[in-house]
Amino acid sequence: MHPSRVNVIVPDGERLARFERAILPHLGAAYNLARWLTGRDHDAEDVVQDAFVRAFQFFHGFHGTDGRTWLLAIVRNTCYTWLEKNRGHHPTLSFDETKHTGDVAAESPEGLLARKEDQQLVRQALEQLPAEFREVIVLRELEELSYQEIARVADIPLGTVMSRLARGRARLQDHLAQRREREANIELR
Amino acid sequence: MNCAELDPLLHGYLDGEFDLGRSLEIECHLEACRACAARFRALKDLRRALQAPELYQRAPTHLRQRIRAAMPGKRRRRWVPALAAAMVLLGVSLGVVLGLRLNRGEDFLTREAVAGHVRSLLPDRPIVDVVSADTHTVKPWFHGHVDFAPPVRDLADQGYPLRGGRVEFLDNQKVAVLVYQRRKHVINLFVWPQAGSEVAPQEQTYQGYVVLHWVRDGFTYWAVSDMSSEGLQRFADLLQR
Q1: Judging by DSSP bridges, how do beta strands B209-216 and B199-206 pair with one another?
Q2: Cα separation of B219 and B152, whole Å?
Q3: Alpha-carbon dihedral of residues B192, B193, B194, B195, nearest 10 degrees?
Q4: What residues have CB less than 8 Å from B140, skipping those under 6 apart?
Q5: What DSSP line would sit under A16-74, residue for residue?
Q6: CA distances from B238 to B149, B157, B161, B232 (A)
Q7: A18 close contact with B: CB closer than 8 A
Q8: With an 8 Å Cβ cutoff, is A166 touching chain B?
C-alpha cells in the first residue's frame, strides 16, 4: 500500500458510506475465509468484525477497484494474529458442526444420503488440511480467486500459490481415497 | 510435451491460468493420453466436490448489522429524541450524515424494499415460490398471483441468472418479486405497474444495502442487493436494454 501524498479530509459520514459501498459487499467472502481458518462460527464472527474495523482504519490506503482481494488479505492477517493469540501455536483442532443450508435438488433418499455422507468426507478432508494448504484451496475453489489474487491475499509468490494448490489437492485426493475405501469396507461387512 | 512435463501444468490448466497457446498444447496432450486425461478428470471431480454449496460458509444474517454497528462514526436512521436534546445541550456538532436525502414517499419504499430483501434471506422460508431460470415458466406463474404481467428477463448469459419469483406485499399492495443471483449475491427485484413518466435509475444505500429505483414502460422497479454498487448498476443497465 502506498501512503497517499495528498491529505484529503473527507467528512466521516461520506468516508463510511464509501467504505460500505466498496467493502461491505464482500462480507460473505470474509466470513467464509475466517470460518475455514478458525473453525468456529463464533470466532469467525469476532475475527470478521475485527477485520472490518481494521479495514476501515486502513481505507485511506485502498486505491484499487478490487475490494474483495484487499479485504481478504486483511481478514487472513487478522485470522492468523487471532489464532496466535488465542490458540498459541496449536493448529486448529476442532471445527464446529456445519449447519446444512441451501436448496437441495430433488433426488432419491438413497442418493441424497450417499451424497450427504460423501460431502461430510470432503468437508472433513478440507478441515484436516494444514492451514497453508487449506487457505489456498478455499480461495481457489470456494472463492474462485485467480492465482494472482491468491498471491496478494496470502502474501506469497505466484510459484508458491501453484505448488501449494498442487500439494493441497494431492493431499485431499489421498485422504479422500483412504476414507472412501474405509467406508466401503465398513459397508461390506 | 511429455507426461512428466504436463503433470505440474494440469493445475494451471484446470484453473484457466494459461494463455490460449499453452492451453491448446495441453488439450492436445490430454486428448491423446489416457493416463493424463484420467489425472485431469480426477482433479475435476475434486473440484466438483469442493464446489458443493454446503461447503461455502454463509455469514449469519445478524453479522451485517453487527459490523455496521461496530463502525466508528456510524449514522443513525432516526434521532432518538432524548439523545438529540442531549446533543444540542452539549453543543456537539456531528459531521455525520443523518437519514436519507430522499423525498418522503421514496424513503418509505426504500425501507420496505430493504426489509423485504432481508426477510427473503431468512432461512425459515423459500426465497422464491416458483423456482425456475426460464422466463417462460416464471412469467405465466404471475398470472394467478398478481393482476398484472411483470416483464421477466433472462440475464444468465450476462452473469445474472434468474432464480425465480414470488409475490410480496409492499406498501399494502401485491407486487411481483424477481430473484436474481450474481455469484454469491442475491438481488431482489420488486416490480409493479406505475403510470407516468420514466425515471432513470437512482441509487441509494440503506442499512448498507444498495438500492436502485427506476420507472420504465409503465412499471416501477426497486432492486435491492448486498453486492457492490457497480454490480447492481450493471444489472439495471442490462435490464433497460
Answers
A1: antiparallel
A2: 12
A3: 170
A4: none
A5: HHHHHHHHGGGHHHHHHHHHHHH--HHHHHHHHHHHHHHHHHTGGG--SS-HHHHHHHH
A6: 20, 11, 12, 10
A7: no
A8: yes
Please write the tens of the pLDDT for every residue from B186-222.
999 999 999 888 888 888 888 889 999 999 999 999 9
Long-range contacts of the stretch B105-110 (C-beta < 8 A, 24+)? B106/B213, B108/B171, B109/B170, B109/B171, B109/B213, B109/B222, B110/B204, B110/B206, B110/B211, B110/B213, B110/B222
Give the C-alpha separation, B132 to B126, whole Å.
13
> A 71-90 residues with CB below 8 A of B?
none
The SS3 of residue B180 is strand
Q: Among residues B17, B10, B12, B18, which one has the least CA distance to residue B39? A: B10
Determine which helix (DSSP H) or strand (DSSP E) holds B4, and give its type and residue range.
Answer: helix B3-6
Buried b (16+ CB within 10 A) or exposed e, B79-107: eeeeeeeeeeeeeeeeeebeebebeeebe
Using the structure block, give the residue that is written with the C-alpha cell 437441495: A104
Q: Which of B12, B56, B73 sits opposite A16 (nearest CB)?
A: B73
Where on the phi/psi map is residue B216: left (φ > 0), alpha (ψ -120 to 50), or beta? beta
Q: Indicate the SS3 state at residue B178.
A: strand
Rounded CA separation A142/A35 (Å): 12
Q: In angstroms, what separates the C-alpha of A137 from chain B's closest C-alpha?
A: 9
Q: Output the nine-digit C-alpha cell for B129.
A: 415460490
User: Which residues, in sequence order, are CB contacts of A178 under 8 Å at separation 6+?
Assistant: none
Cα A147 to Cα A170, B46, B52, B229: the distances in Å are 18, 18, 21, 26
Which of A67-81, A107-121, B54-68, B190-204 is predicted with the least confidence, judged by mean pLDDT? A107-121
Task: Point out the residue among B50, B60, B63 whose CB comes nearest to the CB of A142.
Answer: B50
- Looking at residue B160, the DSSP 8-state letter turns out to be B
Bridge partners for A140 per DSSP? none
The residue-averaged pLDDT of A174-189 equals 84
A150, A136 Cβ separation under 8 angstroms? yes
Contact in structure between A37 and A134 (CB atoms under 8 Å):
yes
Which DSSP string do the residues of B21-55 spell out, in sequence order? HHHHHHHHHHHH-HHHHHHHHHHHHHHHHHT-GGG
State the Cα–Cα distance between residues B72 and B137, nearest whole angstrom. 47
Q: What is the ipTM of this complex?
A: 0.86
